[in-house]
From TrEMBL:
Pfam families, per database record: DUF4230
Full protein name: DUF4230 domain-containing protein
InterPro entries named among the record's database cross-references: DUF4230 (IPR025324)
């Protein structure tokens, strides 16, 4: 058997093996998929942020981009995004300014307390009804823009909801109870102090109603 014959037999055998392997792969419905990921840690920062309220939001976000072809014909592309988010609202205590009391004085004076802010948004996005134009196609920048706009919209909705008010009430009353448990007097900025006094009055009224004490 000469070299040419051996080579032809090897090629035929290899081709048959590939054909059999492909047939088996199609029958089993399995494919080989390779995934590679690289985790990069850029930096670690020390923070003192406290979550005081969380809310769950759903939003339907419609995106449409009009593009003119030859300044005459419209070539629109559009997509619908359904976003479901968990929003955490709280405070950055690094922004708090307080005055150190005199020696022996059990009074904590908060000179500045920050407004509640959105600390994190955990969102699940799903795209529906994606329609590209004839020449106006979607690209990676479009998807990034859509997700950024949807997240910003969710951030604004969270700040317009009751979450900031709930977070404010929570933190003020928590600080008051903590200070009282140690025998300290808590003094907040004027606007916050009025809110705290109202919370204390409401808590006292609720306690009286619960205990049946009308005096």
């Amino acid at each position: 058997m000469d070299f040419l014959t051996i080579t032809l037999l090897l090629l035929v055998g290899a081709g048959g093996g590939v054909a059999v392997a492909n047939a088996l792969r199609k029958r089993t419905g399995t494919t080989d998929v390779q995934r590679d990921s690289v985790l990069l840690l850029e930096r670690i920062e020390k923070v003192f942020k406290v979550v005081m309220a969380e809310g769950f939001f759903s939003e339907i976000y419609n995106y449409q981009d009009q593009k003119k072809i030859l300044y005459v014909l419209n070539d629109p592309k559009k997509a619908m995004v359904i976003a479901k988010s968990k929003v955490l609202v709280g405070f950055d205590f690094a922004k708090v300014r307080f005055r150190t009391p005199s020696e022996g004085e059990k009074r904590l004076v908060i000179e500045y307390f920050p407004e509640p802010e959105v600390l994190s948004i955990d969102t699940d996005y799903k795209f529906y009804d994606i329609q590209s134009g004839y020449l106006n196609h979607f690209n990676s920048e479009d998807y990034t823009k859509i997700l950024d706009e949807a997240k910003q919209s969710m951030n604004e909705r969270a700040l317009q909801s009751d979450l900031p008010k709930i977070a404010n009430n929570q933190i003020q009353y928590m600080m008051y109870q903590l200070a009282s448990s140690m025998g300290w007097h808590l003094q907040l900025p004027e606007a916050h102090q009025k809110q705290l006094e109202a919370l204390k009055e409401k808590a006292e009224n609720d306690r009286r109603l619960t205990s049946g004490d009308d005096t």
